[in-house]
Amino acid sequence: MKYNLIIVDDHKMFLDGLLSILYLEKEYNVILTAKNGKQIAKYIEINKNEKIDLVITDISMPELDGISLNKIIKKNYKNIKTLIVSMHNDPEMIENLIKNDVDGYVPKNAEKQELLKAIKTILNGEKYFSKQIKDIHLNTKLAKKREEEIKLTQREIDVITLIAKEYTTQEIADKLFLSKHTIESYRKNLITKLNVRNLAGLTKYALKMKYIKQ
User: If DSSP codes are grouped into helix, strand and coil, which group holds residue 5?
Assistant: First the structure.
């Protein structure tokens, strides 16, 4: 049985390298290559009845990136599998792709054997994520769990919000009708509780939790 593959990547050298690997594998038939996701989305839409088994795509591409392309495929063409091959290892990108049911993700510097293993695994109906990607995903999940476990009191939220707004210790004390010493204690406790190193870390956390608007 032959599988029909599509490859989309705006780096010609990588595209050519991938083609040369796949041409040696008798069960794979590369029916199309493209430089951006828009071309692929259009092709799939026009050729709805064509058997397309797998789309191998990069993330960063002009016009339509790999994240958006995966989303379109998974929403409209359930029978088409998707494999991301990219240098990106940004946790948010990985989370987004997993949330939108991507079938696999391997880094561009993966060995040829791992790439072929990923393709084979996905075409057999399973997911395939390289160790590096799995580790990032796991660490992100653990970090989110830790964040959810952290509960700040209303007073701590008041203090961290004013710190993030660049109020001095004295100004915060005056505003909250507390002593300067109490505010300093709050600040030290918050640094420990949130596992950050300094005031910049507290500010970053306050922004992330939307205590203050950017």
Answer: strand
Report the C-alpha gap between 212 and 214 in whole angstroms: 7
Q: Torsion over CA of 57, 62, 63 and 68, rounded to 10 degrees? A: 40
Q: Which helix (H) or strand (E) holds 81?
A: strand 81-86
Q: What is the pLDDT along the chain (214 residues), one digit of tens a residue?
A: 899 999 999 999 999 999 999 999 999 999 999 999 999 999 999 998 899 999 999 999 989 999 999 999 999 998 999 999 998 888 889 999 999 999 999 999 999 999 999 999 999 999 999 998 898 888 888 878 877 778 889 999 999 999 999 999 999 999 999 999 999 999 999 999 888 899 898 898 888 888 876 5
SS (H, E, C) 92-156: HHHHHHHHCCCCEEEECCCCHHHHHHHHHHHHCCCCEECHHHHHHHHHHHHHHHHHHHCCCCHHH
